[in-house]
Batch of 3 targets.
Target 1
Amino acid sequence: MSQPVIVVVGAGPGVGASVARRYGREGYAAALVSRPAEALEALGKQLQAEGITTGWTPVDVTDQQGLTEAITRFGGFADGIDVLHFNPSAFRQKHPLDLSVDELLEDVALGVGGLLTAVQAARPFMKAGARVTATGSMAADQPWNEAASLGVQKAGLRNLVHSLDATLAPDGIRAVSLTVRGSLGRGTPFDADYVADALYAAAHQPDESWRSEVPFTGGPTTGA
């Protein structure tokens, strides 16, 4: 495939769709991964109708083998992966005294472990200049105790991205998480389209001033 390719893990109607569209405007083909098959197909067909080359595979992000196989197929078909974007997290409204260890680990397996699986699967198809991006959250620093596992996920996600960036940088591949410091909402400063613009800008930072964590405080991003 002559087009550059972005793989969006956790592609839903919000940030995932907006990221696919943002890169689609730049000529990228989008490969989508998410669990709900019908919703994923609807999104894929909608992006195709908008003129974006799009493929999709429904898979549970916590299914290591399934996710690895899906990303491997995308990478093999396209003969490369230029951007891997990781979007999913689990919202479970339980405070620490109600949250079980099994529930915490289940959520972390999605919101953090899924990134590890995705990057390991994508790495053989990524060349110098490729990028890994992730949707982070202020919950990493300011967790809401009533959804305790979310803060753990986002703190772990950011930490893992730092480690991934340090590991991949010698090969010319960089990783960055965008810390969204507000609540997502259409028509607000934290509209998914603004988040997608900020993620695109974060992925295109100059190497000499690269930051593996970038805050997003809302609104349009200059130069996006």
Target 2
Amino acid sequence: MRPEALIFDVFGTCVDWRTCIARELAAVLPGADALALADAWRGEYQPAMERIRAGNRDYVALDDLHRENLNLVLGRFGLAVPDRDGLNRAWERLDPWPDVVPGLHDLRGHAIIAPCSNGSIALMTRLARHAGLPWDCILGAEIARDYKPRPGVYLASCAALRLAPESVMMVAAHNDDLEAARAAGLATAFVPRPMEYGPDRQSDLGPAQDWDVVASDFPALSRQLFG
């Protein structure tokens, strides 16, 4: 198939959040276990969004959830950081995996490309500027006022492009993201990121279903879709 647009998960699929967040934590907390802190901070991500998905809280942008989660984690570890707002902006300074920028440029020559992330428009815009991600526009959670894997997030991205879901391909390194996108009627592409959680990762090492495309990296995805 040749999709008219590709929308991308960002954290983990496009950028190496764990290494970069640990690096920023190590800079402000040199005596702490930076990787453990990064994992703990990320560990609060799904529970915080689930309260919104379940209807127990109105929509709150991920920037603010990250900041609340940082407070929780620093309290749990008994750590103090004077400039917590500055540290929270570390999520805007994540580096891409090596194949991502050239692969996105290849794909952009054939189709619209945009993030479909749980990150806010502000976060995704600043991250794109830092990482050199050549998006055509910013889509995802904020335009839907909800969080993946709720179907409305994928469908709002399609609607914003005035495209039918079957003309849009969701690209992710996470099988549950693709499962939800497929259920909403989108095409799917799996690109593994085995080092997202470090060498001991146990999940998402390979495709869990017969996704429309399985590619080793973004340039391979472009070749498989467009030749």
Target 3
Amino acid sequence: MPIATVNPANGETLKTYEAMGEEEVERRIRLAEATFRTYRTTTFAERARLLVRAAELLEEDQADIGAVMTTEMGKPVKQARAEAAKCAKSMRWYAEHAEGLLADEEPAEHDVKDSGGSRALVRYRPLGPVLAVMPWNFPLWQVIRFAAPALMAGNVGLLKHASNVPQTALYLEDLFHRAGFPEGCFQTLLIGSGAVDEILRDERVRAATLTGSEPAGRAVASTAGEMIKKTVLELGGSDPYIVMPSADIDRAAKIAVTARVQNNGQSCIAAKRFIVHTDVYDAFAERFVAGMKALTVGDPMDEGTDVGPLSSEQGRSDLEELVDDAKRSGAAVLCGGERPDREGWWYPPTVLAGIDREMRIHREEAFGPVATLYRADSLEDAVLIANDTPFGLSSNVWTRDDAEVDRFVRDLEAGGIFFNGMTASHPAFPFGGVKRSGYGRELSGHGIREFCNITTVWHGA
């Protein structure tokens, strides 16, 4: 795939870039290793000062970088600006909290004495250069949620971003440079996916994090396993959105629309499978379909647009194949379901019902504004449908029944369970999944410790 900015609204190639050669990649890895030796000794106060400055610059650049993101991957510009603001907020959060999250831990005194020691502590130390392989759908946020904690922990970053968001990738390197971080703390590698394996095998690269597809995760995990390197993987999701009879149906249906089409439906944590108790199925379906039909699909640079184009022609083709397969297998199309005749990579908000286990869309992630509706006869049935997926990223449940809350928390197979609202990420809460959605966690104290050497320090009596 060429490294290029291609406007998904019309398919026009706006800017292309040459991939970095081996010599330039080697220079950058060497610089990262050299920078780490000194950056690791900086204080939390110094790192926080730099990260806050980066947040200030990002806030100043919010409108401009928002327009760049929209041009490169098609999200509505108001959502792009919100993404930039969220990144700045998270950078400030880590600047404030990192020192406390990584403070030395002292084991219980009786355990220290039992070990034969006089004192002991656990210290979190940085690992070194970390390779981040990041996707296009949240081109700022996916990177910042890695970079902010990694830099605050004393690591340095090497970014291999998606090939269709090169301007955003270069902006990120420039942002940290302008903020005053030492040269080599955060570098963008303009390379294709084929170059990742060799970089991951380099002994100077100590760990890797990847957000992306299941095949990409398998490739990185395989090489990292061979090289015995730590990885964090955040892969696909096919999140359930469960509605029980005690729910506020009007609100559940309204939020469901946003939960499905946020970021043009191209979000791992977007609700995708809507599992509704039979007692309220008809009422929910009527409201949900009406809400999906009412969305404004159009120019992503227009402030009134709800849904823009998909990010690529291939992405649209993949989504269209899932819908067409479901239709051939008997699914009912409640709205949408047909590609519009216009330039660019558009697909309408779509709702499918009558889904069965043999349809591809039941097993595979639909990455676009396509929702599937399921009827559940009971709580147990809802849980079975929700867990009948290879993924386990997040989940949404609408109920006012405390006993049902306890059952869903016990039985749903997901890294997050959000009640009476839609899934969202926040720097204070761990983020990640189970099953084929990956392993490890980003954000919160769990995320910042993923790329730390957890060191036992023991003193004899």
